[in-house]
Specification:
The chain has 296 residues and is of the alpha+beta class. The chain folds into three domains: 85 residues, Pseudouridine synthase; 131 residues, Pseudouridine synthase (2-Layer Sandwich), CATH 3.30.2350; 62 residues, PUA domain (Archaeosine Trna-guanine Transglycosylase, Chain: A, domain 4). It is 16% helix and 34% strand. The protein has six helices and 17 strands. Strands 1, 2, 3, 4, 7, 10, 11, 12 and 13 form a nine-stranded mixed beta sheet that branches. Strands 14-15-16-17 form a four-stranded mixed beta sheet. 34% of the residues are buried.
Length: 296
């Protein structure tokens, strides 16, 4: 059975590239058009950027990417319009009297579920346009606070005015906003001079590869298989007959320890992902596994 090449490439994005720049380069290296990233990373940030290829571009909705880890550097005393070092300084404030104990005392304000105002230079839409587009055009941009979750926030190195921190957070959290708000809580100002994403979901920096280390010949050696891509899902091994049925979009009348409407990774005996299926209840019959996304 011929299965189209697909999978997930975890890129260590360099600074200065947009997420779309990475997708463009991956398309060239993979020699295919069907490529897409699973969530943007700021141009000035580096680190983990999962990129889906081929049929796996349709699997992004099944990925569990609600945990992210970042290492970042906070520079005290200056706030910029972008929240990072690429922006213009809009406010200065004293920082010389701030001690490590002062910082440690305010960090609990930024853990747990908190309200956070995103940076105006962000991809959030305002009246149908990206906030950063409006900001670059000189328009006034006001964004509302939104709930985000910060699970861990700790100091790694104390060398004021630059302080290295690490954060583990949920989706929608802006590290640039954290730096800005921590600076304000210290009655000073702050922005990031470095942001590096260490992990997103089950994918870490150890799984990543630099674009400089990739070429057309070795590209697919670094691509994670579709089945490993959805490793967070429960799975079901299909027999040969079921592989054919699922390939034609037919449901399977099988028993399983699953919850109704739960997504299931259905694979063959060789570890190939055949489909992502859903266990649904059928009237006057036992539940069946229904194909949601067939991969063959």
């Amino acid at each position: 059975m011929k299965i189209e090449k697909s999978g997930l490439l975890v890129v260590d994005k360099p600074t200065g590239m947009t997420s779309f720049d990475v997708v463009r380069d991956v398309r060239r290296l993979a020699e295919m058009r069907k490529v897409g990233h699973t969530g943007t990373l700021d141009p000035d940030a580096t680190g983990v950027l999962p990129v889906a290829l081929g049929r796996c571009t349709k699997l992004s909705k099944f990925l569990t990417l609600d945990r992210k880890e970042y290492a970042f550097t906070l520079r005290l005393g200056e706030e910029t319009d972008t929240g990072d070092a690429s922006g213009e300084i809009v406010r200065k404030a004293p920082w010389e009297t701030i001690g490590r104990a002062d910082l440690e005392a305010v960090l609990p304000q930024f853990t747990g579920e908190i309200q956070q105002v995103p940076p105006i230079y962000s991809a959030i839409k305002v009246d149908g346009k990206r906030a950063y587009e409006l900001a670059r055009a000189g328009k006034d941009v006001e964004l509302e606070a939104r709930p985000v979750v910060v699970r861990r926030l700790e100091v790694v190195d104390w060398s004021p005015p630059e302080i290295a921190l690490e954060v583990e957070c949920g989706p929608g959290t802006y590290v640039r906003s954290l730096a800005r708000d921590i600076g304000a809580a210290l009655e000073s100002a702050g922005h990031t001079t470095r942001i590096r994403r260490l992990a997103v979901g089950p994918f870490s920096i150890d799984d990543s590869v630099s674009l400089d280390d990739l070429n057309v010949e070795n590209f697919w050696e670094h691509v994670t298989s579709p089945l490993k891509m959805v490793q967070s899902l429960k799975n079901y091994e299909l027999n040969d007959r079921e592989v054919v049925d699922v390939g034609h979009g037919r449901p399977l009348a099988v028993d399983g320890p699953w919850e109704l409407e739960e997504a299931i990774a259905a694979h063959d005996g060789e570890g190939r992902l055949i489909a992502v299926m859903e266990w649904r209840e059928k009237k006057d019959d036992r539940p069946r596994l229904w194909p949601r996304r067939v991969m063959i």
